[in-house]
Design brief:
By secondary structure, the protein is an alpha/beta fold. The protein is built from 9 helices and 8 strands. Strand 2, helix 2 and strand 3 form a beta-alpha-beta unit. It is globular and about 45 Å long.
């Protein structure tokens, strides 16, 4: 498996500094948070997109994914959501990223069936232009669809190879799924896996990997046992927890922890 980290853990940091951290600590890739607060977002001009892509290539680091905020099950008209996904997919194409992250985003008051149908309809449309752009759209286990079983209801209706799943281990665990259950649900669709650690169900302040309660060893063991060889991406949610320890000082030990888990599961 290859290792990456998300720029959610280093909010606002320049691309040069992000690449310095990745190369210094032995990470193979970076998940880029696509937001106007960050150096990379859908409003970035073409020449600057090319500069970012060239910088990653020169550093020998992959742009794993563009992590967007489109909410595919949210109430409202389809067109705006589909265009938001299109913008993210075009950004991913220009940067050489394999994946685009989207959220479910179902609302209170929506029935699960309605949220599933809305999400599947929009993702079905997006799958067509994603194919043309050469990127894959991944629905994260998050908010209204926190478990593998929840995400699979949508993905089964879409039924397109360019639409898959992003397994966030915190949300599936908080949703009551065991890693083997999540893997069984998501394995036909799985793009990559976001790892992290927290103190408890109630306290989701990000911690160093291995310092909290999430079943990271079991997740890695399940993936290894089934021969999965994709990406593990550390999503350290520093942006939402300003008092959390800086990710910069944790990256080296985090990589060592993941490598140890991989070796133990081999």
């Amino acid at each position: 498996m290859k290792l990456a980290f998300s720029t959610l853990g280093v909010p606002g940091l320049s691309i040069d500094e992000v690449l310095r951290l990745a190369t210094a600590h032995g990470y193979h890739g970076v998940e880029l948070r696509a937001h106007p607060e960050e150096p990379v977002h859908p409003g970035l001009p073409a020449d600057q997109r090319a500069e970012v892509a060239a910088a990653f290539k020169a550093a020998g680091v992959e742009v794993l994914a563009v992590a967007g905020y489109a909410r595919v099950a949210a109430p409202g008209e389809d067109d705006a959501v589909i265009e938001e996904i299109r913008d993210l997919a075009e950004l991913a194409r220009d940067l050489g990223a394999s994946y685009v992250r989207v959220f479910p985003g179902g609302a209170d008051g929506q029935s699960p069936a309605e949220a599933d149908a809305v999400a599947a309809r929009r993702l079905g449309v997006a799958a067509e232009f994603a194919t043309d752009l050469g990127v894959r759209i991944l629905l994260e286990t998050h908010d209204s669809h926190p478990t593998g079983a929840d995400a699979t209801r949508v993905l089964g209706m879409v039924g397109h190879r360019q639409v898959g799943a992003l397994w966030d281990v915190m949300h599936t665990w908080r949703g009551g799924e065991q890693p083997l259950e999540t893997y069984a649900a998501l394995s036909p669709y799985l793009g990559y896996v976001q790892v992290k650690d927290i103190a408890s169900t109630e306290d989701t302040t990000p911690l160093a990997l291995g310092a909290g309660v999430l079943p990271l060893a079991e997740c890695v063991e399940v993936l290894s046992r089934h021969g999965w060889d994709g990406w593990l991406c550390w999503e350290y949610e520093k942006r939402w927890y300003e008092t959390a320890e800086p990710l910069e000082v944790l990256l080296g030990a985090g990589r060592e922890h993941l490598v140890r888990l991989l070796n133990e599961s081999a």
